[in-house]
Amino acid sequence: MRKFFEKRDLLIFLLILSAFGLSLILPKGNGEKIVIEGRNFRKVLEKPGVYDITENGRFLMRVEFNGKKVRVVESTCPLKICVKTGWVGPGGIIVCVPNEVIIYFEGKMDYDTETW
Amino acid sequence: MRKIALLSILTAFSSILYAVENFLPFPVPFGRWGFSNSVVLLVASEIGLLDALIVSSAKSIIGSLFGGRFLSPSFLTGFFGAISAAIVETLLAKLGFGYLGLSFAGSFANNLVQLIVISLLLGNTKTFLLLTVMVGLGLISASANAFIASKMGGILFENYSSFFFAEEKRVDETLGNRV
To answer: Rounded to whole angstroms, how far apart are CA atoms B17 and A106?
Structure first.
Protein backbone atom coordinates (compact mmCIF):
# COMPACT_ATOMS: atom_id res chain seq x y z
CA MET A 1 0.00 0.00 0.00
CA ARG A 2 1.33 3.34 -1.08
CA LYS A 3 1.60 6.21 1.35
CA PHE A 4 -0.49 9.34 0.98
CA PHE A 5 2.53 11.60 1.11
CA GLU A 6 6.18 10.91 0.41
CA LYS A 7 8.91 13.50 0.77
CA ARG A 8 9.67 13.38 -2.94
CA ASP A 9 6.15 14.55 -3.67
CA LEU A 10 7.36 18.01 -2.71
CA LEU A 11 9.56 17.89 -5.83
CA ILE A 12 6.55 17.56 -8.13
CA PHE A 13 4.68 20.20 -6.16
CA LEU A 14 7.57 22.66 -6.47
CA LEU A 15 7.96 21.91 -10.19
CA ILE A 16 4.30 22.64 -10.86
CA LEU A 17 4.33 25.68 -8.61
CA SER A 18 7.38 27.09 -10.41
CA ALA A 19 5.71 26.58 -13.79
CA PHE A 20 2.64 28.29 -12.34
CA GLY A 21 4.69 31.21 -11.00
CA LEU A 22 6.67 31.56 -14.21
CA SER A 23 3.55 32.03 -16.26
CA LEU A 24 2.37 34.75 -13.86
CA ILE A 25 5.68 36.60 -14.13
CA LEU A 26 5.93 36.37 -17.92
CA PRO A 27 4.91 39.62 -19.59
CA LYS A 28 1.43 39.89 -20.90
CA GLY A 29 0.32 42.04 -23.74
CA ASN A 30 -0.82 45.52 -22.78
CA GLY A 31 -4.50 45.40 -23.55
CA GLU A 32 -5.43 48.01 -26.06
CA LYS A 33 -7.05 46.07 -28.83
CA ILE A 34 -9.41 43.19 -28.57
CA VAL A 35 -9.43 40.46 -31.16
CA ILE A 36 -12.57 38.45 -31.75
CA GLU A 37 -11.80 35.38 -33.76
CA GLY A 38 -14.41 33.05 -35.14
CA ARG A 39 -14.62 30.27 -37.66
CA ASN A 40 -14.18 32.48 -40.68
CA PHE A 41 -13.92 36.03 -39.41
CA ARG A 42 -11.54 38.09 -37.37
CA LYS A 43 -12.58 41.39 -35.89
CA VAL A 44 -10.46 43.88 -33.98
CA LEU A 45 -12.12 46.25 -31.50
CA GLU A 46 -10.27 49.45 -30.64
CA LYS A 47 -12.88 51.85 -29.27
CA PRO A 48 -15.05 51.23 -26.21
CA GLY A 49 -18.63 50.34 -26.88
CA VAL A 50 -21.09 47.54 -27.34
CA TYR A 51 -20.67 45.44 -30.43
CA ASP A 52 -22.86 42.83 -32.05
CA ILE A 53 -20.94 39.88 -33.43
CA THR A 54 -22.54 38.27 -36.42
CA GLU A 55 -21.36 35.51 -38.68
CA ASN A 56 -22.80 35.41 -42.19
CA GLY A 57 -25.68 37.54 -40.96
CA ARG A 58 -26.42 35.21 -38.03
CA PHE A 59 -26.35 36.86 -34.58
CA LEU A 60 -23.84 35.16 -32.31
CA MET A 61 -23.17 37.36 -29.31
CA ARG A 62 -23.02 40.91 -27.98
CA VAL A 63 -19.67 42.06 -26.63
CA GLU A 64 -19.11 45.04 -24.35
CA PHE A 65 -15.71 46.74 -24.21
CA ASN A 66 -15.11 49.55 -21.73
CA GLY A 67 -11.58 50.45 -22.76
CA LYS A 68 -9.85 48.22 -20.22
CA LYS A 69 -11.95 45.13 -19.87
CA VAL A 70 -14.23 43.12 -22.06
CA ARG A 71 -17.23 40.90 -21.45
CA VAL A 72 -19.91 39.03 -23.35
CA VAL A 73 -23.30 40.52 -22.58
CA GLU A 74 -25.41 37.92 -24.30
CA SER A 75 -24.85 34.95 -26.50
CA THR A 76 -26.78 32.34 -28.39
CA CYS A 77 -24.85 29.40 -27.00
CA PRO A 78 -26.74 26.98 -24.72
CA LEU A 79 -24.64 26.98 -21.55
CA LYS A 80 -23.72 30.71 -21.51
CA ILE A 81 -20.24 29.96 -20.21
CA CYS A 82 -18.85 32.94 -22.08
CA VAL A 83 -21.39 35.22 -20.35
CA LYS A 84 -20.65 33.74 -16.94
CA THR A 85 -16.92 34.38 -17.45
CA GLY A 86 -17.71 38.05 -16.80
CA TRP A 87 -15.29 40.90 -17.20
CA VAL A 88 -11.90 39.85 -18.47
CA GLY A 89 -8.80 42.04 -18.29
CA PRO A 90 -5.58 42.03 -20.31
CA GLY A 91 -4.10 38.58 -20.63
CA GLY A 92 -7.48 37.01 -20.07
CA ILE A 93 -9.52 35.15 -22.60
CA ILE A 94 -13.15 34.34 -23.25
CA VAL A 95 -13.87 31.16 -25.16
CA CYS A 96 -17.27 30.27 -26.57
CA VAL A 97 -17.02 26.79 -27.95
CA PRO A 98 -20.50 26.28 -29.47
CA ASN A 99 -20.14 29.46 -31.50
CA GLU A 100 -16.42 28.79 -32.05
CA VAL A 101 -15.49 32.29 -30.95
CA ILE A 102 -12.40 33.32 -29.03
CA ILE A 103 -12.03 36.79 -27.56
CA TYR A 104 -8.62 37.95 -26.37
CA PHE A 105 -6.44 41.01 -25.94
CA GLU A 106 -3.92 41.60 -28.62
CA GLY A 107 -0.52 42.02 -27.05
CA LYS A 108 2.61 43.51 -28.48
CA MET A 109 4.40 40.22 -28.30
CA ASP A 110 2.58 37.61 -30.30
CA TYR A 111 4.41 34.33 -30.12
CA ASP A 112 1.81 32.52 -32.12
CA THR A 113 3.22 33.35 -35.51
CA GLU A 114 6.65 32.05 -34.56
CA THR A 115 7.48 28.79 -36.25
CA TRP A 116 10.70 27.86 -34.46
CA MET B 1 -11.51 -12.99 -12.87
CA ARG B 2 -11.42 -11.26 -9.52
CA LYS B 3 -9.42 -8.44 -11.03
CA ILE B 4 -12.06 -7.98 -13.74
CA ALA B 5 -14.75 -7.80 -11.06
CA LEU B 6 -12.76 -5.22 -9.11
CA LEU B 7 -12.03 -3.17 -12.22
CA SER B 8 -15.66 -3.18 -13.28
CA ILE B 9 -16.82 -2.07 -9.83
CA LEU B 10 -14.26 0.74 -9.87
CA THR B 11 -15.23 1.71 -13.42
CA ALA B 12 -18.89 1.87 -12.50
CA PHE B 13 -18.13 4.02 -9.47
CA SER B 14 -15.90 6.28 -11.49
CA SER B 15 -18.32 6.75 -14.37
CA ILE B 16 -21.11 7.64 -11.96
CA LEU B 17 -18.83 10.23 -10.37
CA TYR B 18 -18.00 11.51 -13.86
CA ALA B 19 -21.68 11.90 -14.73
CA VAL B 20 -22.71 13.43 -11.40
CA GLU B 21 -19.96 16.00 -11.17
CA ASN B 22 -21.30 17.72 -14.27
CA PHE B 23 -23.73 19.37 -11.87
CA LEU B 24 -21.01 20.77 -9.64
CA PRO B 25 -20.09 24.37 -10.43
CA PHE B 26 -16.64 25.09 -11.78
CA PRO B 27 -15.18 28.52 -12.50
CA VAL B 28 -13.48 27.67 -15.81
CA PRO B 29 -15.31 26.77 -19.01
CA PHE B 30 -14.91 23.14 -20.08
CA GLY B 31 -13.81 22.29 -16.57
CA ARG B 32 -15.03 19.97 -13.93
CA TRP B 33 -13.45 19.04 -10.64
CA GLY B 34 -12.55 15.60 -11.87
CA PHE B 35 -13.20 13.54 -8.76
CA SER B 36 -13.69 10.49 -10.96
CA ASN B 37 -9.97 10.60 -11.65
CA SER B 38 -9.29 9.45 -8.09
CA VAL B 39 -10.31 5.96 -9.23
CA VAL B 40 -7.90 6.22 -12.15
CA LEU B 41 -5.22 7.33 -9.72
CA LEU B 42 -5.86 4.34 -7.48
CA VAL B 43 -5.80 1.84 -10.35
CA ALA B 44 -2.77 3.44 -11.99
CA SER B 45 -0.71 3.49 -8.83
CA GLU B 46 -1.68 0.10 -7.45
CA ILE B 47 -2.59 -2.24 -10.31
CA GLY B 48 -1.03 -1.39 -13.63
CA LEU B 49 -0.87 0.64 -16.82
CA LEU B 50 -3.18 -1.47 -18.98
CA ASP B 51 -5.88 -1.62 -16.32
CA ALA B 52 -5.59 2.11 -15.72
CA LEU B 53 -6.02 2.76 -19.44
CA ILE B 54 -9.06 0.50 -19.55
CA VAL B 55 -10.67 2.12 -16.52
CA SER B 56 -9.94 5.68 -17.61
CA SER B 57 -11.25 5.25 -21.14
CA ALA B 58 -14.25 3.22 -20.02
CA LYS B 59 -15.27 5.74 -17.38
CA SER B 60 -15.05 8.62 -19.86
CA ILE B 61 -17.14 6.77 -22.44
CA ILE B 62 -19.76 5.44 -19.99
CA GLY B 63 -19.88 8.66 -17.98
CA SER B 64 -20.37 10.77 -21.08
CA LEU B 65 -23.09 8.42 -22.30
CA PHE B 66 -24.87 9.02 -18.97
CA GLY B 67 -24.46 12.74 -19.34
CA GLY B 68 -25.49 12.76 -22.98
CA ARG B 69 -22.30 14.31 -24.26
CA PHE B 70 -20.65 11.41 -26.02
CA LEU B 71 -18.19 12.54 -28.73
CA SER B 72 -18.75 16.19 -27.84
CA PRO B 73 -15.72 18.46 -27.24
CA SER B 74 -15.92 18.05 -23.49
CA PHE B 75 -15.95 14.27 -23.91
CA LEU B 76 -12.82 14.40 -26.07
CA THR B 77 -10.94 16.57 -23.58
CA GLY B 78 -11.97 14.36 -20.68
CA PHE B 79 -11.07 11.19 -22.56
CA PHE B 80 -7.59 12.20 -23.64
CA GLY B 81 -6.93 13.97 -20.34
CA ALA B 82 -7.79 10.89 -18.31
CA ILE B 83 -5.68 8.64 -20.53
CA SER B 84 -2.65 10.91 -20.33
CA ALA B 85 -3.08 11.22 -16.56
CA ALA B 86 -3.22 7.44 -16.28
CA ILE B 87 0.00 7.06 -18.28
CA VAL B 88 1.87 9.72 -16.32
CA GLU B 89 0.69 8.36 -12.98
CA THR B 90 1.70 4.78 -13.79
CA LEU B 91 5.14 5.83 -14.97
CA LEU B 92 5.75 7.98 -11.88
CA ALA B 93 4.34 5.32 -9.55
CA LYS B 94 7.34 3.16 -10.40
CA LEU B 95 9.61 5.89 -8.99
CA GLY B 96 8.00 5.60 -5.57
CA PHE B 97 6.03 8.81 -5.29
CA GLY B 98 3.14 9.07 -2.86
CA TYR B 99 -0.48 9.60 -3.79
CA LEU B 100 -0.23 13.37 -3.50
CA GLY B 101 2.66 13.73 -5.92
CA LEU B 102 1.12 11.31 -8.39
CA SER B 103 -2.14 13.22 -8.23
CA PHE B 104 -0.40 16.55 -8.83
CA ALA B 105 1.51 15.19 -11.80
CA GLY B 106 -1.61 13.54 -13.18
CA SER B 107 -3.69 16.70 -12.90
CA PHE B 108 -0.96 18.73 -14.58
CA ALA B 109 -0.75 16.27 -17.47
CA ASN B 110 -4.53 16.18 -17.63
CA ASN B 111 -4.83 19.97 -17.88
CA LEU B 112 -2.03 20.25 -20.41
CA VAL B 113 -3.50 17.58 -22.69
CA GLN B 114 -6.99 19.03 -22.33
CA LEU B 115 -5.78 22.43 -23.47
CA ILE B 116 -3.86 20.83 -26.34
CA VAL B 117 -7.06 19.07 -27.45
CA ILE B 118 -9.10 22.27 -27.13
CA SER B 119 -6.55 24.25 -29.10
CA LEU B 120 -6.54 21.56 -31.80
CA LEU B 121 -10.33 21.69 -31.95
CA LEU B 122 -10.43 25.46 -32.17
CA GLY B 123 -7.27 25.77 -34.26
CA ASN B 124 -5.97 28.47 -31.96
CA THR B 125 -3.20 28.42 -29.37
CA LYS B 126 -4.60 31.32 -27.35
CA THR B 127 -6.46 28.85 -25.15
CA PHE B 128 -3.19 28.15 -23.35
CA LEU B 129 -3.79 31.35 -21.42
CA LEU B 130 -6.23 29.26 -19.40
CA LEU B 131 -3.41 26.97 -18.24
CA THR B 132 -2.52 28.98 -15.12
CA VAL B 133 -6.11 29.03 -13.89
CA MET B 134 -6.62 25.35 -14.62
CA VAL B 135 -3.37 24.32 -12.95
CA GLY B 136 -4.17 26.41 -9.89
CA LEU B 137 -7.60 24.85 -9.54
CA GLY B 138 -6.08 21.48 -10.42
CA LEU B 139 -3.87 21.62 -7.34
CA ILE B 140 -6.97 21.81 -5.14
CA SER B 141 -8.84 19.00 -6.83
CA ALA B 142 -5.64 16.94 -7.08
CA SER B 143 -5.18 17.02 -3.31
CA ALA B 144 -8.82 16.04 -2.85
CA ASN B 145 -8.38 13.20 -5.35
CA ALA B 146 -5.23 11.95 -3.62
CA PHE B 147 -7.07 11.89 -0.31
CA ILE B 148 -10.02 10.01 -1.79
CA ALA B 149 -7.73 7.54 -3.55
CA SER B 150 -5.66 6.82 -0.45
CA LYS B 151 -8.79 6.28 1.65
CA MET B 152 -10.29 4.07 -1.05
CA GLY B 153 -7.07 2.10 -1.36
CA GLY B 154 -6.92 1.68 2.40
CA ILE B 155 -10.45 0.26 2.51
CA LEU B 156 -9.73 -2.06 -0.42
CA PHE B 157 -6.51 -3.35 1.09
CA GLU B 158 -7.99 -3.85 4.52
CA ASN B 159 -10.98 -5.84 3.39
CA TYR B 160 -10.25 -7.37 0.03
CA SER B 161 -6.51 -7.64 -0.22
CA SER B 162 -6.92 -10.97 -1.98
CA PHE B 163 -8.33 -9.04 -4.94
CA PHE B 164 -4.88 -7.88 -5.84
CA PHE B 165 -2.65 -10.18 -7.81
CA ALA B 166 -4.22 -13.28 -6.28
CA GLU B 167 -3.98 -16.40 -8.34
CA GLU B 168 -7.19 -18.31 -8.62
CA LYS B 169 -7.02 -21.39 -6.48
CA ARG B 170 -7.62 -24.58 -8.37
CA VAL B 171 -9.28 -27.59 -6.88
CA ASP B 172 -6.65 -29.55 -5.10
CA GLU B 173 -6.21 -32.64 -7.19
CA THR B 174 -3.75 -34.48 -5.00
CA LEU B 175 -5.05 -37.84 -4.00
CA GLY B 176 -4.80 -37.51 -0.23
CA ASN B 177 -6.89 -34.35 -0.13
CA ARG B 178 -9.94 -35.79 -1.78
CA VAL B 179 -12.69 -36.41 0.66
So the answer is: 39
